[in-house]
Amino acid sequence: MIPATIDSNSAQPGQFRPIIVWLTAAAGALGGLLFGYDWVVIGGAKPFYELFFHLDSPSLRGWAMSCALIGCLIGALSSGTLSQRFGRRRLLTLAAVVFAASSLGTGLAATFPLFVAWRILGGYAIGLASGISPMYIAEISPAHLRGRLVSLNQLAIVFGILLAQIVNWLIARPVLAGSTAAQILASWNGQSAWRWMFAVTAVPSLLFLAATFLVPESPRWLAQQGRHQQALAVLQRLGGSDYASQVLHDFTTADQQHPQRSVWAELSAPGIARVLLLGVLLAILQQWCGINVIFNYAQEVFAAAGYQVSDILFNIVITGAVNLVFTLVALATIDRYGRRVLLLTGVSGLALIYTALGILYHLHRTGLPMLLLVLAAIACYAMSLAPVTWVVIAEVFPTRIRSSAMSIAVTALWTACFLLTYTFPILNAALGAGGTFLTYAAICAAGFLFLFLRLPETRGISLEDMESSLNPTHTHGK
């Protein structure tokens, strides 16, 4: 069993340059903004492209919503090998290029198969960015700021979500309540506006592309490749000479303690396997806690609570604002209170809120109480599972296998997300909204028990010190 807490007396080395570190981390997190926007914009465009492409069955509608996840899986699977070979920065550049191309392609798609193809390509960019960005930020961060800096990636995701929700609301707002399907399809919204929802992402994609040429390569990746002088130069840029010398010494010492073995031999070693299992199950829990159905299927959730179309889109904007505020709460507290406190509080809160939502749906209650519970669920998620999952899976794996282990964990995350997104319409039809939320409540309760027993505290521990603490039984080669 992985210990519930880890003690570390290691001091922070030297003096670092906070402005440069924060700016570098923020640039690396820009992919999260595109990720968040692209992921949510489809929910606002949904009423229009479904009519435009005549998607008249639950399976087609579910496929339109979930097809991008196929690309996410491919991107996540390939990110480990590619980032290990070519470095973190080049993969961020690739993600930016693909984001820009897929945004324009989706907006211009004339047929449903083309729409799906471009969505899958966009998903590939998301899969790359979702694994590379938090890993890159973790690898350039000092231990005592790592939680906040990696959480910048989630903050960027949330800002992208809020931006997409505002765009969706502004574009769809002219659609009057009570409009027929034919009237909506014939409107500017039904013919062209939904295309702009996707195409506008090309603008921030180009900004992200420019940023990838300004940030340095990961010093840990450079050191692992034997490029110690380049790693030292990056560390000096981030923290000065004393900081650079101490951290590079830690890199080298940790690397010398472990003989070269194949990636699969490392991943299957007893200590590493336990940490990998923790990362995979935490990634799955982040999705199967069910919160994404509120963002991806907000129309159905709010409609079941008694809201009309224009009200639904405004309420989506409200959820985005709550998401942003409580992500900032996580950013301010993650390095003060640690990972365990935030995760256990958030997951237990979700279990209770989903239970209440399920009961109210069974009682056919609508209106404000439902909206308040939805907002409370988003608040719990935004300050716990949303940012902290990315922090934990970016920091618990040893540097020599981090890219491969992150790839596995992120692939598990997107597989879980695909199953959640694709099965929600089916689950909702079979169990109703009440039964669906009670199912997610049970998953969250099980997740709380798992995290309570298996999640270590990693606050303030260097990545190299964490490796030896997390893997006390790890044997060195055979």
Supply database-style keywords.
478 residues, mainly alpha, Growth Hormone, Chain: A, 22 helices, globular, disordered N terminus, disordered C terminus
- What is the level-2 CATH architecture name of the largest domain? Up-down Bundle
Mean pLDDT: 83
Major beta-sheet overview: none
* CATH evolutionary superfamily of the largest domain: MFS general substrate transporter like domains
Q: What share of the residues does DSSP label as strand, in percent?
A: under 5%
Name the shape in a single word: globular
Which regions are unreliable across 5 or more consecutive residues at pLDDT < 50? 1-14, 472-478
What gyration radius follows from the Cα positions, in whole Å? 22 Å
Give the proportion of residues in helices.
Answer: over 70%
As for the CATH topology of the largest domain, it is Growth Hormone, Chain: A
Number of helices: 22
Spatial separation of the terminal alpha carbons: 23 Å
- Following the backbone from N to C, one meets helices and strands in this order, namely HHHHHHHHHHHHHHHHHHHHHH
Tell me the number of strands.
0
Write a brief structural summary.
By secondary structure, this protein is an all-alpha fold. It contains 22 helices and no strands.
List the helices and strands and how they pair.
Blueprint: H1 18-28, H2 30-52, H3 58-66, H4 68-86, H5 88-108, H6 112-140, H7 146-172, H8 181-186, H9 188-199, H10 202-212, H11 219-224, H12 228-256, H13 263-267, H14 270-288, H15 292-296, H16 298-304, H17 309-337, H18 339-362, H19 368-382, H20 385-395, H21 402-454, H22 463-470
Helix pairs in contact: 1-6, 1-7, 2-6, 2-7, 2-9, 2-10, 3-21, 4-5, 4-6, 4-21, 5-6, 5-9, 5-10, 6-7, 6-20, 6-21, 7-9, 7-17, 7-20, 14-20, 14-21, 16-17, 17-18, 17-19, 18-19, 18-20, 18-21
